[in-house]
Design a protein that fits this description.
427 residues; eight-stranded mixed sheet
């Protein structure tokens, strides 16, 4: 089935589904999911290229340096047990002669994903789509700020997490830059010392405490398992026995398979097999999980932000070096989603730097767009003839603001003011 057609059909199902009204849903989140249901994967949503615009810099200022942190691109998921379990149970249902046409389609598409997984072997490896994502981000960065990568000797300092998917992302990005500007002097590094500042997460204590909140959400929101069985099987009673009685777990296996299909360039939308109330439930679960643990949540933000301090210090130190030296075009860092969100929160980006409570998160944070695969932060530095430096912040290539900090003009901030702001955020 055509990908856009599948999305359109799913949008109709959302509108007509009688179960939607039974669950409290954020209207804007529903709208964004109706636009593209693959966003329900939250941090497994593949990168969406936006139609960005650039606010004109104040008169006399020209870009000269970029500081960047980027998550690895699209990857496979962790383990194969739910792919294999899903295929096995659907295969048993087919042998029993009770698969509906929809169930047969799900089996076929889940088998494609399972078989692609078997060809690789390593958990979390970068897919070809992930390579393309980083090559594209690099090309757009270059074309957006060609003055940064001017003619003559220019150095680009690049570091990566030691995780293979990050290293391959780094290679895809820098190869793209090198093709556009062969004269760039690009240095690459990846080691355990670099891991100390490019990779961080919440503490075990925060994870345990937040899990209790997420478990309560899971238990409080029932989903339409009857509708699922009727959609996929001609005899729901026999199907329930094959599944093992736990239809909710079977439904979650479908969700977890669906949320990585895009990373493999599977054209069909596997979310279409699940009632929308179930899709929204798991979207909501993973969306709250990311903000609660990795951003500036009211419950755990004060514990999370100090852990990204080494990365903030690296950004400031290297930027000051580049300002003074004059030959460094960019500092590029490749890592993971959690540090990306924590860095955005520490910087104080709109929405991501606000202390929202667990119940407020759905109305303010949409992870499918904020923390997709290949999500990135770019800080573009501008200078005038007198040497004054301004910066502009981009999240996933879109201009963003810092509500708590006064701007010089539009999204442009004085670098000295930013450093004072960050010193206050240190607490």
């Amino acid at each position: 089935m055509n990908h856009k057609l599948a999305i359109a059909i799913f949008a109709i199902l959302i509108i007509t589904s009688p179960t939607v009204a039974g669950q409290k849903m954020d209207p804007e989140s529903v709208r964004l999911l109706k636009e593209d249901i693959t966003r329900a994967g939250v941090n497994t949503n593949s990168y969406e290229v936006c139609n960005f615009t650039d606010t004109k810099a104040p008169r006399g200022y020209r870009p000269f340096y970029i500081s960047h942190y980027g998550r690895h691109g699209s990857r496979n998921n962790w383990g194969r047990k739910y792919y294999e379990r899903l295929v096995q149970r659907l295969s048993e249902a087919r042998e029993a002669g009770i698969l509906s046409p929809s169930g047969d389609s799900l089996l076929r598409e889940a088998t494609i994903i399972r078989d692609i997984e078997l060809q690789g072997g390593a958990n979390g490896r970068l897919t070809p789509r992930g390579v393309r994502e980083h090559a594209g981000i690099a090309e757009r960065m270059y074309k957006r700020c060609p003055a940064v990568f001017k003619k003559g000797p220019q150095s680009v300092r690049v570091v990566s997490s030691t995780t293979p998917r990050c290293i391959v992302s780094m290679a895809a990005f820098t190869n793209s830059l090198k093709a556009l500007r062969p004269g760039l002097d690009i240095s690459l590094a990846s080691d355990e010392n670099i891991m100390d500042y490019v990779s961080s997460s919440c503490t075990k204590e925060v994870k345990a405490a937040s899990q209790k909140m997420l478990d309560s959400l899971d238990a409080a929101v029932p989903v339409d398992t009857v509708g699922l069985l009727e959609r996929l099987f001609t005899d729901p009673a026999i199907a329930r026995k094959i599944i093992g009685g736990n239809v909710a777990a079977f439904e979650k296996d479908i969700f977890r398979t669906a949320r990585v299909a895009d990373a493999f360039d599977v054209p069909d939308n596997l979310f279409r097999f699940i009632p929308f109330d179930a899709v929204y439930k798991w979207y909501d679960y993973y969306n709250r999980e990311i903000y609660l643990r990795q951003c500036y949540s009211a419950e755990f933000g004060k514990e999370r932000l100090p852990l990204v301090q080494p990365l903030v210090d690296d950004v400031v130190t290297k930027a000051d070096e580049a300002i003074k030296d004059g030959t460094v075009a960019a500092d590029l860092r490749f890592g993971h989603d959690w540090p990306t969100m924590a860095l955005a929160a520490y910087l104080g980006f709109e929405r991501l730097g606000e202390p929202y409570t667990f119940d407020q998160i759905p109305a303010h944070f949409f992870g499918g767009l904020d923390v997709p695969l290949a999500c990135n932060i770019q800080i573009i530095f501008y200078r005038n003839r007198s040497g004054n430096v301004l910066v502009k912040f981009l999240l996933n290539e879109k201009e963003t603001t810092i509500p708590g900090l006064g701007a010089v003009s539009g999204p442009y901030y004085d670098w000295d003011d930013v450093k004072i702001w960050l010193s206050r955020r240190r607490g």
